[in-house]
């Protein structure tokens, strides 16, 4: 099965303590590496967990609070210094370009590789990236400043033919492509050969939803419906739900409600407040509603 | 004796590897904390080494290459989030203010404590900070972009009186202040009471010099003359002296020559290239010229 998994580089909210790091994740889909948010220290975390920066082809930044993007200039500069030549696509709020340009100007840095910036829109969903195997969409979240979540969808692939069957039935070559797409073949004598009988069952396409940072709000539920793995921020325990609402964050109980409502298969909690040295209570609170919850542990890969 | 020591938070040059961090140091003078440069990850390093950000009153930024200041927005933001109220003085190139303002604007951050920015000048020496015990000066270095070093000088203090002697001789109170300043007292009968006999010998005032990043250049030698502890960048071994010159950096052999020429008591090497996983060769090379060399090891305090 195609590799589709997420490595957590940082699970902390904005005042990183106890050895935790601000938000960043690497998504590996079929050996193509996507970086999701890039908090301070991301380049060191990549090194620590054995991921070369050169393998990252696309970076997605959710919003312009420092704990989600302050590692970017360091990472981009280091890629320049180690001689990267390949394109790097960066998706984020339009002002991110201005922030990068100003810093590159004053450090007199002219990147030696193509950095292609794609501004995101926090008002409506859009497809950011697409190839034959995967699509990435952004969708609005509701935070203190413009913020988007991201959804990664594996695409339905053509089925594999049951070769011996197909040869035995002597199905003409031009029809094989149609069978793979699920279209039945009708022989000259009127016999119907069903595509589902002549192909192996397809694995169900998988999806990953990423929500950070946001107040819980049903407006974004549709965008993460039925995801296999949902990362959702859970800055506070629910006894601080008022504080969560004030600061446009979510509690671990609310994150569980979101996962349940959108029919996610699994939930990954993150963006933990410095208030919590021990994270178990957040996990336990979420599991009272949604059993398939995990803590996003730094350095750990999670299968989508 | 008054505490005067430096904690190394980061000793790496611009592509941090092997668990090393970009440049940052904490200087503790008499329990007042000064931060010198603030590379990416500084706030996490402060936490790791048990220094509260709230204790830092002054921050000095040498130049606008990312590995010397990218931790600043994170640190300043976190200080805001944990409720800092006390003044924070920031010294650095004028454009730093523009960089901070732009990022605070887009993250909608209005600091709740006074951040007082003092632009530095990379063309000539200037006194940046002074109180009764310490002065801090900046001086030009020669790097690819405008860059300053810093020098911290303990001030000569008033001497302590030998109380019993002074009382025995019945020296009038108004003259005691003069004795402490080294001025002899002449009694009515013409007897001279020497200040040096009536006071304890003063400890010699100490000084710390900080040079990062620079090509070796005698223009800055005067500014670090006779320092007790000299931190000097040593990005490369001397077999790469051409590369050092091209990139406006120094070799460990050159750093030793600087220390010897300016009559420093001790030398601390730092800003190591990612080329060197093992740093011992840099230390050994420097010691061939200047025996009192140490590697700036992260997490270690060095006495001035």
Describe the structure.
The structure is a homodimer of 304-residue chains. Chain A is of the alpha/beta class. Chain A is 24% helix and 26% strand. Chain A folds into two domains: 4-157 and 202-303, Ribonuclease Z/Hydroxyacylglutathione hydrolase-like (Metallo-beta-lactamase, Chain A); 163-198, no CATH class. Chain A has a seven-stranded mixed beta sheet with strand order 6-5-4-3-2-1-16. In chain A, strand 2 and strand 3 (32-38) form a beta hairpin. The relative contact order of chain A is 0.14. Chains A and B meet through helix 1, helix 2 and helix 3 of A and helix 1, helix 2 and helix 3 of B.
Shape of chain A: globular
Unreliable spans of chain A are none
Order of helices and strands of chain A: EEEHEHEHEEEEHHEEHEEHHEHEE
SS class of chain A: alpha/beta
**Average predicted confidence as pLDDT of chain A:** 96
Number of strands of chain A: 16
Top-tier CATH class of the largest domain in chain A: Alpha Beta
Q: In angstroms, what is the radius of gyration of chain A?
A: 22 Å
CATH architecture of the largest domain in chain A: 4-Layer Sandwich
Residue share in helices of chain A? 10-25%
The CATH topology of the largest domain in chain A, please? Metallo-beta-lactamase, Chain A
Give the tally of structural domains of chain A.
2
Q: What is the CATH superfamily label of the largest domain in chain A?
A: Ribonuclease Z/Hydroxyacylglutathione hydrolase-like
End-to-end Cα distance of chain A, whole Å, is 12 Å
* Main sheet attributes: strand count, strand direction, barrel closure of chain A: 7 strands, mixed
Largest interface in this structure: A-B, 38 and 38 residues
Strand content of chain A: 25-35%
Count, helices of chain A:
9
């Amino acid at each position: 099965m195609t590799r589709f998994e997420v490595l957590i580089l940082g699970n902390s909210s904005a005042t990183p303590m106890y050895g935790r790091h601000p938000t960043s994740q690497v998504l590996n889909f079929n050996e193509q590496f996507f970086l999701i948010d890039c908090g301070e220290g991301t380049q060191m975390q990549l090194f620590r967990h054995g991921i070369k920066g050169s393998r990252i082809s696309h970076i997605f930044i959710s919003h312009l609070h420092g704990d989600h993007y302050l590692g970017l200039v360091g990472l981009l500069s280091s890629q320049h210094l180690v001689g990267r030549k390949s394109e790097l696509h960066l998706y984020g709020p339009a002002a991110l370009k201005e922030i990068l340009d100003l810093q590159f100007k004053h450090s007199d840095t002219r990147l030696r590789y193509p950095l292609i910036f794609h501004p995101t829109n926090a008002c409506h969903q859009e497809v950011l990236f697409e190839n034959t195997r995967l699509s990435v969409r952004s969708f609005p979240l509701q935070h203190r400043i413009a913020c988007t979540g991201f959804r990664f969808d594996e695409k339905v692939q053509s089925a594999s033919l049951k070769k011996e069957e197909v040869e035995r039935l002597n199905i003409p070559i031009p029809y094989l492509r149609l069978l793979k797409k699920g279209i039945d073949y009708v022989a000259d004598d009127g016999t119907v050969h069903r595509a589902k009988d002549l192909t192996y069952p397809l694995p169900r396409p998988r999806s990953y939803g990423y929500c950070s940072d946001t107040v819980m709000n049903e407006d974004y539920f549709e965008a993460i419906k039925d995801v296999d793995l949902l990362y959702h921020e859970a800055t506070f325990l629910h006894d601080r739900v008022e504080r969560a609402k004030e600061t446009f964050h979510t509690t671990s109980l609310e994150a569980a409600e979101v996962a349940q409502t959108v029919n996610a298969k699994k939930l990954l909690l993150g963006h933990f407040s410095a208030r919590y040295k021990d994270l178990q209570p957040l996990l336990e609170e979420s599991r009272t509603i949604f059993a398939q919850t995990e803590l996003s542990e730094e350095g750990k890969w999670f299968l989508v």
